[in-house]
Amino acid sequence: VVIGWEKDCHVLTFSSSGSVSDHLVLHPQLATGNFIIKAVWLPGSQTELAIVTADFVKIYDLSVDALSPTFYFLLPSSKIRDVTFLFNEE
Whole-prediction pTM value? Predict the structure, then answer.
């Protein structure tokens, strides 16, 4: 489960009994006035997570590195409001 809230993003892993087995906190280094709009798992992946703000989209592969994003898309207009990701099996 991923929970994105204002400045941090929390990733919780649950055991089969329903208790939290791991808790990871991501700090995407947001500028003043910039907040997390959405945190979403990429379709078809259990380890790739996108964090969306008005200024950028950072994509993390948590199986590789939880500190540095794999991809970082910075938009000059600061107008991101929402995102949708598509998955193509080909």
Answer: 0.84
